[in-house]
UniProtKB/TrEMBL annotation:
<protein>
    <recommendedName>
        <fullName>Ribose-5-phosphate isomerase A</fullName>
        <ecNumber>5.3.1.6</ecNumber>
    </recommendedName>
</protein>
<dbReference type="InterPro" id="IPR037171">
    <property type="entry name" value="NagB/RpiA_transferase-like"/>
</dbReference>
<feature type="binding site">
    <location>
        <begin position="102"/>
        <end position="105"/>
    </location>
    <ligand>
        <name>substrate</name>
    </ligand>
</feature>
<comment type="subunit">
    <text>Homodimer.</text>
</comment>
<dbReference type="GO" id="GO:0004751">
    <property type="term" value="F:ribose-5-phosphate isomerase activity"/>
</dbReference>
<dbReference type="GO" id="GO:0005829">
    <property type="term" value="C:cytosol"/>
</dbReference>
<feature type="active site" description="Proton acceptor">
    <location>
        <position position="111"/>
    </location>
</feature>
<dbReference type="GO" id="GO:0009052">
    <property type="term" value="P:pentose-phosphate shunt, non-oxidative branch"/>
</dbReference>
<comment type="similarity">
    <text>Belongs to the ribose 5-phosphate isomerase family.</text>
</comment>
<comment type="pathway">
    <text>Carbohydrate degradation; pentose phosphate pathway; D-ribose 5-phosphate from D-ribulose 5-phosphate (non-oxidative stage): step 1/1.</text>
</comment>
<dbReference type="InterPro" id="IPR004788">
    <property type="entry name" value="Ribose5P_isomerase_type_A"/>
</dbReference>
<dbReference type="InterPro" id="IPR020672">
    <property type="entry name" value="Ribose5P_isomerase_typA_subgr"/>
</dbReference>
<keyword id="KW-0413">Isomerase</keyword>
<comment type="function">
    <text>Catalyzes the reversible conversion of ribose-5-phosphate to ribulose 5-phosphate.</text>
</comment>
<dbReference type="Pfam" id="PF06026">
    <property type="entry name" value="Rib_5-P_isom_A"/>
</dbReference>
<feature type="binding site">
    <location>
        <position position="129"/>
    </location>
    <ligand>
        <name>substrate</name>
    </ligand>
</feature>
<feature type="binding site">
    <location>
        <begin position="33"/>
        <end position="36"/>
    </location>
    <ligand>
        <name>substrate</name>
    </ligand>
</feature>
Length: 232
């Protein structure tokens, strides 16, 4: 017996379908990772079945690659197409300046690479992801080289973070890039995301942070009032 579908799932699907409708003929698109992005991938597959022709899609994770391949979406990579027309992905938190926290799904490095390679980065989400200040609802993921985990944890703690090594099934979570993730909770939130991002990036052994700053151009929110896109 299947569990009843939550309103949040419906809203995620609404956002995914609306974003898939932004994809135009002949585009090279990047596909994000996570539950909302999965709805995008399904909606894009339906559009392709209905006749939409794209040059190809670049997945941001092995999970998204597997889903897109199973749905017969034509796939490519950044070696063949180093510039994307559009990248579409979910977010864990979105502030009023369209700054994001991403990485709950563990694909933050590849997601940021694709976002930075895209002419347009569109974020898809449900209303729960909108926040007034980053860092209150979700910890900030930081991808790190495993060798340096103990020195990095010490330095992150000195920045005021409560640092936890991400685990899955009681063993350290390994990213698609064979790295670890620290989930960093800032008890007062992140008042200056650019400063925190720079401080963390200055730590040797840090690969990337889940702060996505000056990357997102548009947000598509599915919610009880329907789909809202801003800025228009």
């Amino acid at each position: 017996m299947t569990s009843p579908r939550s309103p949040q799932d419906t809203w995620k699907q609404m956002a995914g379908v609306a974003a898939a409708n932004l994809i135009q003929e002949g585009m090279v698109v990047g596909l994000g990772t996570g539950s909302t992005a999965a709805y995008l991938v399904q909606a894009l597959s339906q559009r392709i079945q209905q006749g939409l022709q794209i040059v190809g899609a670049v997945p941001s994770s092995q999970a998204t690659y597997d889903l897109a391949a199973s749905l017969n979406i034509p796939l490519t990579d950044l070696d063949i197409h180093p510039e994307l027309d559009m990248y579409i992905d979910g977010a864990d938190e979105i502030d009023p300046q369209l700054r994001l926290i991403k990485g709950a799904g563990g694909a933050l490095l590849r997601e940021k690479i694709l976002a930075s390679a895209a002419r347009r980065f569109v974020v898809i989400a449900d209303p729960s992801k909108k926040v007034t200040q980053l860092g209150h609802r979700f910890p900030l993921p930081v991808e790190i080289v495993p060798l340096a985990k103990t020195p990095i944890k010490l330095k992150l703690s000195k920045l005021g973070a409560q640092v936890e090594l991400r685990h899955r099934d009681n063993i350290p979570f390994i990213t698609d890039n064979h790295n670890y993730i620290f989930d960093c909770t800032f008890p007062q939130g992140i008042s200056n995301p650019a400063e925190v991002d720079a401080q963390i990036h200055s730590i040797v052994g840090v690969v990337e942070t889940g702060l996505f700053l000056n990357l997102a151009q548009q947000v598509v929110i599915g919610g009880p009032e329907g789909v809202q896109i801003f800025p228009q």
